[in-house]
Amino acid sequence: MQHNPKQTTLIIGGGIVGATLALKLAKGQRPVTLIDAHLHLTASDWDKKISQRDARVFALSLASIELLKQVGAWQKIAQSARKADYTQMQVWQMNGIGELKFGNDDNPTLLGSMVEPFIIEKALYERFDDDDISPFLTVVHGQKVVSLTWQTDGYHVMLDNGDTYTAKLLVGADGRASMVRQQAGIALDTLSYHQTAICGAIKTEQPHNATARQVFLDDSILALLPLADVSDEDKANPQHWQSIVWSLPTDKANALLQLSKDELAKEVAFASGYALGDVVQIESVASFPLNAQHAKQYVKPNLALIGDSAHGVHPLAGQGLNLGLLDVVALVAVLQQDFERCCAEPSQKSWADFATLQRYERKRYANNAMMMHSFSGINWLFTNQFAPIQQIRNEGVSKVSKIKPLMQFFSKKASGI
Predict the structure, then answer these.
(1) Which of 290, 350, 355, 415 is 20 to 30 Å from the Cα of 337, by its Cα?
(2) Which of 62, 231, 32, 2 is nearest to 135 (CA)?
(3) Which CATH architecture is the domain 9-415 placed in?
(4) C-alpha angle with apex 372: 251 to 253, nearest 5 degrees?
(5) What pTM does this model have?
């Protein structure tokens, strides 16, 4: 079946970043179609998913929260009570001196919020059918793109069910293995850390007190991130569940993954220095290899990449999704400028010309590259076992922790605002 190209923007990828872009454009009354390879979930499907705790969690910055508010999703997340706000961040070295602590004990203020992925997705998807969104948004569920063809005025896209779509602007939001990026012939720089991350949900003896923690060990990095309380039992004794991300050399990670849950729980508690006492329960253990990647370009005529399709970073700072949502903010801003110019000067080129997309690339490319290399550098610095490097690192952390303006600067950068 052939669809008329009513829409001016076609987004491939219905994850959090792609769905947020779709809502942001539709809320601005810009026609958009979202192609999501995942099947449409019914209300009962969602109820089943949210009845369980997801060990994964996204550390949403203040900038990301603001964007989700703008598209009407954060309000739903807040109503669900499935978020864990944090007002402090604590970073320390197990065998070093000094620690970095962000946040004020006497006057706690929100630094961000930890939210499970499917809670964010549910809030976004629920907005698709709202009256202010649905007239401008078409969502295609459960179909994969089989071919992309660039034409002089846009892209022709065919799905595996034979349906075709034509769009002035094609946006790739289809993840690290992006088919859109590959089909567009955009090369990729990659960096393997030769590390594997172990993730899971843990229940600790002591409460986390709305604090995100990260400890640098001799050759690994362990993060403990607050999780929302799910069951009535959790809520009666709150703030004991956390998500862990433990980045280790791959051989050590593989050895830990052979342990029983009780044995692994003991290893996690020991690695944290018993910061919150024993780990009394662990569930949903999983692992994934760690690498960084960066597309050599974000745009081509009539095409833009956002989120993991364009860049992927080390998880040590929890900034991957936040960087993708900042891509959304930047892309919508330049498209809005383009739209306003076209309306004021009808003789000008239409929506999303190449110069517009290049402005988006200039806004985001250098920043994302800097963040990727910064995280790589921090990972190298804190897992390097060369004695002189360790000494410099220890002294540096101790001195930085005492410089209040510098700590405030780091806190502001982490917030994304």
Answers:
(1) 415
(2) 32
(3) 3-Layer(bba) Sandwich (3.50)
(4) 15
(5) 0.88
